[in-house]
Amino acid sequence: MAKALFGHVGMSADHRLVDEVATLRRRVADLQQLCLRLQAENDALVAAARVPDDLSHLADSYDDEVREPAFS
């Protein structure tokens, strides 16, 4: 039993597995950075696309009016 345990503990890691884990961690970090960048760009676009309050008020009042059908 001691030899089996020592063999298990003393084994070196598979280099392919270590490389794959490192690659996946880098990819996750890259994707997290991309998400942060896209969120910042989206926030900037939303801020730039804000409709002034006076125009949004006009749109709201138009929706509140009773619309008549085009053809009776």
Description:
There is one protein chain. The chain is mainly alpha-helical and 72 residues long. The chain has a domain at 15-63. The protein contains three helices and no strands. The protein is rod-shaped. The termini are far apart.
Terminal CA distance reads: 93 Å
Helical content, roughly?
over 70%
**Helix segment count?**
3
Low-confidence stretches: none
Largest sheet: none
- Average pLDDT over all residues: 78
- State Rg: 30 Å
What is the number of beta strands?
A: 0
Query: Strand share of the residues?
Result: under 5%
Q: Topology, pairings included?
A:
Blueprint: H1 2-10, H2 15-48, H3 53-64
Give the gist of this structure.
With 72 residues, this protein is mostly helical. The protein contains three helices and no strands.
List keywords for this structure.
mainly alpha, 3 helices, 72 residues, rod-shaped
